[in-house]
Structure formats: C-alpha cells, structure tokens
UniProtKB/TrEMBL annotation, chains A, B:
Pfam families per UniProt: DNA_pol3_beta, DNA_pol3_beta_2, DNA_pol3_beta_3
GO MF annotation terms: 3'-5' exonuclease activity; DNA binding; DNA-directed DNA polymerase activity
Organism: Actinophytocola xanthii
Family: Belongs to the beta sliding clamp family.
Name of the protein in question: DNA polymerase III subunit beta
Length: 372, 372
C-alpha cells in the first residue's frame, strides 16, 4: 500500500467531518469504522460505509503518489480539525498513514483494505431538485419524524414523485409534515422511506446555490451534490414507506380558519407554555379578531395571552401540546400562517398564508383539554 | 398581602435569573423554591434561601403599593425572560401575583410568606477585594475543585487571609490551584471552605469594575457586590477547610524547569491528546530547547509533537492526563508559562513566567507513563 499527498487542511478537515456525520460508523467493527482514502490524478476521495449507509466526498489535492488506504475515520477527522496550519502532508510510512506538520507527526494505523466491503456507486439518477428549496423542506419534514428507534417506520421521511412535484412526508403519529416542491424527473418514478436523521444531516451539507440529484433503485436511495469543488454523495438502504400517506389526514370537517402572524403566536406559545401541566398542554380559544392561549399548572400558576388574528368560520377551541405548536409554527416564522381547525380529536393543519413554490403543511393532533 | 410595581423587564429578568442560579432551590420544599419579592420606596428586592445558601438582589422599580410576597422562583424568572416588552407591571390580585403585559396575564400563586425562614443579612464585613482580579482567581481555582458530591471536602475552595494577601486554594486530589491576591482587610481574619460551584457562579455575576466585599463569621461566608444599580449578596454555610493547605505540596525536588508559550503547548496537548489510551495519559519529554509530547493508542495510532521551550536543569520525563494539562494551561493562555517538574510521582507546578499582582499556581499530579 502506498499514498502520498498534500492538501489544504481546513478543506480536508471539513470533508472528513462531513463524512463522519453522514456515516457515523459502527464502533463494533473496526473495518467499518474506517475511511477509505483514495488519491489519484484528480485529488483525494474519502468514502465510508456501515453497510446500511454509505458516503463519499471528493476534494482537490496535490497527489505525489497515487494509492488507496483504510484508516480509522474519527481520529483522522479530529486530527485534521485540530491542526493549525494551511497545508498538510499525508504519506504512508510502513504500516501507518503519517499526517505530517512542522514539529509534529500523527500516525494512524492502516486497516485491512481488503476486508472492507467497498463503497458502491449510487443507484441510477431519477431526477434533480433545487438545493435551497430541498434543504428547507428536508429540515422541516425531518423534524416531524420520530426519534424513537423502537418505531423504525416513523423515523423515516417518505420521498415520492407525483408528476413534476416531489412529495416529502413524515410523522411521529402526533404531528405530520408534508412538503410538495417542483423537481425535474429524469428516470424512473421514486418512492422511498429514507431515515430522517440522515436527511437532516444532508440538508446541512448540500450547496443551496446548486442542484441536488436524486438516485434510486428498489433497495437504495442516494443524493448527490457538489460542494467544495468536488462531488459528494450519501446513500442508504430504504424501508417500505407505502403505509405513510399524507392523504390519510382527513380535512373534511374544518370549521374554523385562523390567519395569524407566526412570530407573534410562537412568542405567546413560548410564554403561556411555561404554565402547563405535566402533559405540556395548552388551550387555544378562537375569539373575534384574536386567538387566546391559556395554560394552567398547579405549581407555576396560570397564564393567558391574546394574539390578533383574522378568524372565519366557527369558534372551535382546541388543546395542543405546546411543543408541537412550536414545531408547527417554526417553518412559517417571518410570515403569516393559516390554521385550519377541526372539532373533536381531529387534526389541525398549519400552512403559509402566502405559499411559495414549495407547498408546506404541518399537521398537529389535538389533545384532551387540561382540567381546570 | 399587597404589592404593585412597574419595572424594566430585562433588568428584573436578569436579576431573577441571577438569583435562581445563586440559590438553585430545593424542589422538594415548595416554600424554599420560592422567591421573596419586597417592594418599598427604594425599589424591589428579590431574595431566596435553601437554608444552606442565601441570595439577595436589588433593582430599581416604580413602586405603586409597597408589599412583600412569596412566589415560585423559576416560573417568575422564566416568564420575565420570555416577555418581549420594555416595562412590566406586577400586582397582587387575590391569591395571585399577576404579571401584566398588553393582551397577556400571567398569574403566579402566592405561597405562605410566614412559612418562609427569611433571608438573613450577611455576617460582618471582613475586607474588600478588586472585582476583576477576584473573579479571575475564583474561576481558575474553582475549576480545580472536585464536582463529586460524595467527597464534599474536595468540592470547596478554601479562602484564607494571610496579612494583606487573600489565598484561594482548591484541589480534587489530582490537581490543585492556588491564587494569592491583594485585599484590604477591615475586620477579623477570614478562613472558610466555600462551595466551588457557588463561587464559580458569583465570579460570573460580580461587576469587574468595582470592589467585592467579603463577609464572614464562624458559620457563614458571604460576598457582597453592586450590579445593575443595586446591591447583590450571596451567603453560604461553610465547612472546616483546615485540612486543605497549599504548603502540603512539597516542591523540594524540582530538577527540571521549562518555560514555554502556553497557547503553543495547549494546542499540542489538544492534538496529541487525541492519541491517548483509556486513561487519557500522554508523555512529556524534555529535550534541548524543546519539549515533546507523545501519545499512543491501539485504535487511533500514535502522535508526537514538539514545542519550542527554554529548558534548565534535568531532563525528567513525566506523564499526565491530557485534560489536567489543558486545565493547568488555561489560566496562562496568552502568555508564557513556567513548569517545575519533580521526578517520580511528585507534583508538577505551572505558574506565569511574568506574574501580575495575583500569584497563581496550578499543580498537577503525574500518572504512571503509558505502556508502549
């Protein structure tokens, strides 16, 4: 095994950290906790897989000797990030990959590259989407997924093509987020349930000024984007997501419509939310030209706050967990939000009063009202 | 019970939060989780105690009706912090203290003020010290104390007068910090073991441009300072700290002296510290005109880094936990630090190459060297 290259430290440090976040790795298996480092004429490629997920990041480098090694991923990323110098030299010395800096030498053990399963190229391309719109939609929709690994079906985001629209949907059973945004299909129709945590990380890494390509086959889903002068990709095996369908949320009974400044309502939720019982439930009352939030807790006391609103239809009061209201309002901060309220234990929908190209809806299930 | 006042929201929010941090309160006892709010001609006073600790903060206010009530401390602090308005009105309404804002009302239950033990005035003054120097010394020395409540003796800072010097000392048995700084004694000599966590919080709250007064008697220790136009004080019961004496660290065997740039050494410790075994131990070798840090770990690999240094005396190598080196170097960042190394399992001392008025020493115990 051989390899010798010089690279901009900050650039490779960012790439190595990005890869570690895309593929956190399984500490149990030392081979799968490694990163494949490949130096060739075009630069350096970092790749890793934990069998379920795979990631690959390219960066420019001055390659003195081409080669390919497998080294522990986290020590590589941590060392590059801790270095305080412009350029760094990495060279194979015996059974180590040496990272050389003036007065310092860091030597990572070479792992058995032949024992590594390799990082497959992504499945075929199926279309492209605008980076900024996709990142915003991913961040919002992924936040509605469950973080409870005991319910794997609810930890994913379903990504599905519907003609020239891409539909993203996630729910943890108490709240649901749905985004529809334009895309350019170029291959087979896509329909995949993708881990929300991975998508939330990818949303941070994609270049918002460029496109993101979607790749998919029956078993795998991948996203490909350009960043830092090279191509990055993240791939994952997919679950069956057909159980998860946004049309299952019936909105036939909407009898109260409210339009309100999202920031004003979020501020009131934050304050009145300090006065809630152990369930964190507060009451939303609909009045003339205003909504009123009420909370009460035996220890803290009681609170009420009114927010100016345009109200039409009935005066159905509802109760919600305050943290779900906070989540539901977040995507609409900076503008006005429209609430569609149904009576009884039926869902309330939040959407922008003036939607852009991305149609985003946040659905919250009500709770039994607090006892006074 | 009565009380009616108007106050600058941000100002009272800061005061209530400061008090909650000085006296975190015991949730078990609702009375002791309350804050005594006293409005009189001069303004408003917030006071709390958990029997061991006590705190008191004054602020200016427009008092409409003088009075004194007891309300839950944390909801008061959280509500004031969440309000987005300049001025706030607080008024007793029936069995509640109402916090009134346009369109909103927050009502805290009134607790039984007669069941509260009250907050005693601080013990007699014993001297004053410069706020900035004292805060820096407290922060550094408190960080050397143990956070393990199972060893209460090691969770304190001993504060002791030695003529015109105030001596602060703390240790968790593996590291020790000692600061000597000028003070103006005005009463009995002080010698108290004070909880380090409280002192670290006070160090954040004192005004660095003003003096801090020390108050003490046999059972209690208090600090008094001015902030935000009012006087604050924090008091605590004390432990016997006579077991804790900085002269117990023998420095008779120093045979190696090293002077080095603190930032350069801290950077090397941070990087080489990534390559340490489960104990986190790295080796310090003393060479000609340099020191060399070495670390090795079976998984991560091995590292060495040299830092230019002025060396005199022997060439005793030593091993340390990297996190203790990081702590020991922190107070000296931005300047040069002097290491005095003893052979064997005897302490190494860190002090500034050019000390200011405060003489600060950090003592670190070595570890058995890592096996290679």
């Amino acid at each position: 095994m051989d390899l010798d290259l010089t690279v901009t430290t900050a650039d490779l440090a960012a790439a190595a950290s990005a890869l570690v976040r895309l593929v956190p790795g399984k500490l149990i298996d030392p081979v799968l906790s490694g990163v494949l480092l490949t130096a060739d004429g075009d630069g350096v490629t970092l790749a890793a897989t934990d069998r379920e997920r795979a990631g690959r990041v390219e960066r420019a480098a001055v390659v003195h000797t081409e080669g390919r090694v497998l080294v522990p991923a986290k020590p590589l990323a941590d060392t590059l990030r801790a270095l305080e110098l412009e350029q760094v030299r990495m060279v194979v010395e015996g059974s180590k990959l040496a990272i050389r800096a003036p007065g310092a030498r860091f030597a990572l053990p070479l792992l058995d590259v032949d024992a590594h399963p390799g990082v497959a190229p992504p499945p075929p391309a199926v279309g492209t989407v605008d980076g900024a719109a996709f990142a915003t939609a991913l961040t919002t929709v992924a936040s509605a997924a469950s973080r409870d690994d005991a319910l794997p079906m609810f930890t994913g985001v379903r990504i599905r093509a519907e003609g020239d629209r891409l539909v993203l949907v996630a729910t943890d059973r108490y709240q649901m987020a749905v985004a529809r945004l334009p895309w350019q299909p170029t291959g087979l129709p896509v329909d995949a349930l993708v881990p929300a945590a991975l998508l939330a990380e990818i949303a941070k890494q994609v270049d918002p000024t460029g496109p993101v390509a979607l790749h998919a086959d029956r078993d795998r889903f991948a996203l490909v984007w350009r960043r830092g002068g090279g191509t990055s990709h993240a791939a994952t095996s997919v679950l069956d997501g057909s159980f998860l369908h946004e049309s299952k949320v019936a909105l036939s009974d909407v009898d109260t419509r409210v339009e309100v400044d999202a920031d004003a309502m979020a501020g009131a939720v934050r304050r009145v939310g300090l006065y809630t019982d152990a369930r964190g439930v507060l009451l939303l009352e609909v009045g003339d030209g205003e909504i009123r939030l009420r909370g009460a807790d035996q220890r803290a006391g009681e609170a009420e706050e009114s927010v100016k609103a345009d109200v039409s239809g009935g005066r159905t009061p509802q109760a919600y967990q305050s943290r779900f209201l906070t989540d539901a309002l977040r995507p609409f901060l900076g503008g006005r939000v429209r609430l569609e309220i149904q009576p009884g234990m039926r869902a309330t929908t939040f959407r922008a009063a003036e939607p852009g190209e991305t149609d985003l809806r946040y659905v919250v299930m009500p709770m039994l009202p607090p006892k006074h």
